[in-house]
Design a protein that fits this description.
The structure is a homodimer of 375-residue chains. The first copy, chain A, starts with a strand and ends with a helix. Chain A has 15 helices and 16 strands. In chain A, strand 10, helix 7 and strand 11 form a beta-alpha-beta unit. Chain A has 375 residues and is an alpha/beta fold. The model of chain A has no long low-confidence stretch (mean pLDDT 95). In chain A, the strands form 4 sheets. In chain A, strands 4-14-13-12-11-10-6-5 form an 8-stranded parallel sheet. Chain A folds into 2 domains: 267 residues, TIM Barrel (Alpha-Beta Barrel); 94 residues, no CATH class. The first copy, chain A, is globular, with a radius of gyration of 20 Å. Chains A and B meet through helix 13 and helix 14 of A and helix 13 and helix 14 of B.
């Protein structure tokens, strides 16, 4: 079976609806992947995720490597068994975390030496060993190691990092072919290049020439304006093989997601929808709601009248406000269920509208409602 | 329908199996009531509680009064609707919390003035207004206001508090008859008297002469030795009307619960089983397990091989240890489900053994296993 099949392309935009088939099951695209960094999506059970129609989650090698350790997961029979997740898992190499969380000791062409955020011990990630470790824990889709640079670095720094990331990409492919020749291991390349178009082009063309199963765009959503995100995304996508799935790393706000779908993105992940849930914030069809707000004290309506999630069917804003103010875990649980439902529903509706040929209408209507009324 | 019906009395002990019928449903006794202080049992959803067979939970007037406020709950249509709980709720008057959490301004015969732990504001609880407030939020079983004294107070202090608590009990009954004459409002009296037998007797006899629907024993499990708990419990129970349900306030450890059942107790509550869940501790048939322990790193067996709960059917000690060490909310969720299941299961088995006439055998076997192997 083909790894990625495009079912329908929108005629008025680059949006498309498809299906990815991994060794663990079917993933309808476009798809949002909730972040399960440490072998759990925060504040929600697997069953609650299944109920919301979640077909794939994201794990993170950096965190899993440090705690509980690859060995513990491998001996459990892999990440799926360890966390009892029966659908697909994409794992990130942890490149982003190495460069954003750890004190880095040394970056060389062969990899990066870093200190653990847990106990300060020294570790080494190479393009080869991150592929091997993700393979050992049984990930369905594996990301290469990339060098993630801070926002708005200069040309030379960005060029060096982009070149190194492309060299690492070559090593990743070789490693894949060595450990799983002709097998079902799926590896995605990552395009870097900061906000410099020539370097985005260089990376996109390089990655396109390599035998990856999908392509990710990294290094966006790092502090730039939304127009800049879309511009770089759109520009970069023009140099990519559009028969492969396109994954935008680190995007999860409703407006951004729908615009990225318009520009041909098939996959998303972001910690934001689950993180804001723990901070008392909720998506609604009419914009974000901050449940802490005093005006909800006597508001016995659901978060979103149009929403069919467990939270909206059973609980009021008044109750959710009380839970949040009382520091109750149930607050995080109920808002996480709602916010993930909201994103899943938005993407399902986008997909349906692509299939039925009216995506742009749907998008326009959604954005008009969503943006007018931020809390 | 009778509020409390005893179905079977054990011939070798004071244990009994019965049924309480409230306006919200049936409660089989003996029963453990999980603590839902602030309109939620911590780290578990209502559906997960229903699934574990939970028929009654406990709310706390002190906390609900301070946040979100009685008015907010009343306007929601009562506590059941506010938190979407469809079974029975017993509310505590908050006497214990007033005396243990708040800075008390003044105790008089008419009530107690205290400062809010949230914002320092002044409030007044009287035996009458706590009954009225619990009635307003639609509680199924209401507790009177009692004066809770620290462990091992002297005779005079204990006597004063006991006398005041009995005067308050009289006012509570009068209030009940005034606001709900001949209605379905159920109110329990509370026996205090510290560790002084003559005062326990005084309270027990006084409460027995009043028209309460059930009787609670308060002021135990406050730091004394277990033999002392059982001695006072047993002594006190001798002066009570044993046709009414007997409620031991603040007991939830498995060994204590089964011994209290032996001594005629029908109802229990305690924050401990849910609190230890958030601290990484779990009941098992062979004693407590501390999931933090390094020896569970590669332990892929469930918490308790004999347990049928969701957690034990799906997750290993290795995974639970990882979640706890990673500070994940799912750790609290999964341990809460397990620990409540454990207590419910213990009480269900106790009840079955009372009905089938072999409670003492069951108790002896359980304790032998449970106590031999503490972690």
């Amino acid at each position: 079976m083909a790894f990625f099949k495009i079912l329908k392309k929108d005629t008025k935009s680059s949006a498309r609806a498809g299906v990815i088939t991994t060794k663990s099951g079917i993933v309808k695209t476009p798809v949002f992947m909730p972040v399960g960094t440490k072998a759990t999506v925060k504040a929600i059970t697997n069953e609650q995720l299944y109920e919301e129609g979640c077909e794939i989650i994201l794990g993170n090698l950096y965190h899993l490597y440090l705690q509980p350790g690859i060995d513990v997961i491998e001996k459990a029979g892999g990440l799926h068994k360890f966390m009892n997740w029966k659908r697909s898992i994409l794992t990130d190499s942890g490149g982003f975390q190495v460069f954003s969380l750890s004190r880095i000791r040394k970056i060389t062409d062969s990899g990066v030496e870093f200190k653990s955020i847990i106990d300060g011990s020294s570790h080494f990630f190479s393009p080869g060993n991150v592929i091997k470790m993700q393979y050992r824990i049984g990930s369905d889709i594996i990301m290469v190691l990339d060098e993630c640079i801070p926002f708005n670095e200069d040309y030379n720094y960005t060029l060096d990092a982009a070149k190194r990331t492309m060299e690492w990409a070559e090593i990743s492919i070789k490693t894949k072919n060595k450990i799983n020749p002709g097998g079902d291991l799926k590896v995605f390349g990552i395009v870097q290049g900061g906000f410099i178009k020539s370097l985005r082009k260089f990376c996109a063309q390089s990655v396109s020439q390599m035998d990856f199963d999908g392509v990710a765009i990294g290094g966006l959503s790092v502090g730039e304006k939304k127009e800049q995100t879309i511009e770089i995304l759109n520009y970069t996508a023009g140099f990519l093989d559009n028969k492969k799935p396109l994954y935008f790393m680190g995007l999860g706000d409703p407006a951004g997601v729908i615009e990225a779908i318009e520009n041909g993105v098939d996959m998303f992940d972001c910690a934001m929808p689950t993180r804001i849930s723990r901070n008392g914030s909720a998506f609604t069809a009419e914009g974000r709601v901050n449940i802490k707000n005093k005006k909800y004290t006597y508001d016995y309506t659901p978060l979103d009248e149009t929403c069919n999630c467990y939270t909206c069917k059973n609980y009021s804003r008044s109750y959710l406000r009380h839970l949040f103010k009382s520091n109750e875990i149930l607050s995080s649980i109920l808002l996480t269920i709602h916010n993930l439902h909201f994103i899943f529903n938005l993407i399902n509706q986008s997909r349906d509208s692509i299939l039925s040929g009216n995506f742009i209408d749907f998008k326009t209507k959604f954005l008009k409602n969503y943006i007018k009324n931020e809390d």
